[in-house]
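Standup notes
- DV: blocked on the single-chain target, sequence here:
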Amino acid sequence: MRILLIEDHKRLARSIVDGLAGFRFGVDVFHAAEDGLAARRELEYDAIVLDLGLPDCDGMDVLLEIRRSDSTTPVLILTARDTIDDRVTGLDRGADDYLLKPFAMEELAARLRALLRRPGRVLASGLDVGNVYFDTSAQQVSVGGKAVLISRRETAALELMMRQVGVVVSKKSLENVLYGLSYDVSPNAIEAVISRLRKRMESANATCVIHTLRGIGYLLKEQ
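- DV (later): unblocked, structure below
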């Protein structure tokens, strides 16, 4: 799951990135509104965490800008503004949730999971292809009813392909989901993730196969 974080406090932003990684969230962080909005135009995010006190623009205006072109991506406001008027204004302008600083990382993760469990969002239901089942809430994979331990990036790759089973998933789409804008991705990084995932699925006797279409992407199909 990929989260866009727009937060100008660099130490707090780094803490959020590291903290959410422990809950299997990948986070792209930007410290100014303009940069965050530019990233949102380039990539599709599962949710947005937005600070209101940004150096180049008020967060409420950023929220309006997001909602002009995107009515569905969940937005969680994360701020020290604690008046009722601020909360009402944020929710009325399109925020889905409002969390005050200081906060516990566990609560932030729980609130994001709650937003993503809403109908149509990425944690809305479990996924199954053949004898492979993916519990989107717990972010756990099982094959034939037995849990399979796989890495966070392998899990993200499998989820993306299971959501588009029978459809070619481009290498670029996988790069965006697995790495976002926070990493310099080596040329063979995606191939390595898919190779490890394929071996784990084969070892667990999965009845679905990942096909490689050279120069195009990957295709998950039931055997």
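- Follow-up: Residues 189-203 form the longest helix (15 residues).
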